[in-house]
Amino acid sequence: MADDNAPHVSTTESLEARLEADAQREGAAATARRACSLLEGGYEGEGFLRVVGGSHAEGILGGAPALYWPELWGARALLYVWDDSAAPVVIAALGNQSWRVREMCAKVCAARGIGTSKDLARLTTDEHARVRSAAARALAVVGNVDSVDTLEVMLRDYDKDVRRTAQQSLKVLRGHLEQA
Question: pTM to 2 decimals?
Answer without folding.
Answer: 0.93
